[in-house]
Amino acid sequence: MAAPCTENNHKQGKLEFVLDVPFPSSREASIALQSLSPDREPRKGGISKELTVSGCTLSVRWRADEARILRVSVGSFMDHLSLVMETMEAFGPPVSVTTQTVSSTMT
After folding, report:
1. 3-state secondary structure of 71
2. What's this model's pTM, rounded to 2 decimal places?
3. Could you tell me if 31 and 46 are in contact, meaning their C-beta atoms sit under 8 angstroms apart?
4. Does the keyword tRNA processing apply (predicted)?
């Protein structure tokens, strides 16, 4: 879900875009956060990106000086997010450490 630009940022000439991505579990949201967090913006100024997890939802907030920079950053992020989600789907839901330990001690 995307959120509109806030009034405060609009007065400062900043563009803002917020994306909430629901996941089936909080574990999967955390895995996505860990996978996507290392990607820093290549440009030093003009844009910032903040990733957080709340429950089963990954939230991403961008703030940018120019629409072009924002568009490129969001597009790149969506490509990476798609790859992370496809990978999670291909390997199935994450196995908890406790389940894995119990299974290996029983065999």
Report:
1. helix
2. 0.74
3. no
4. yes
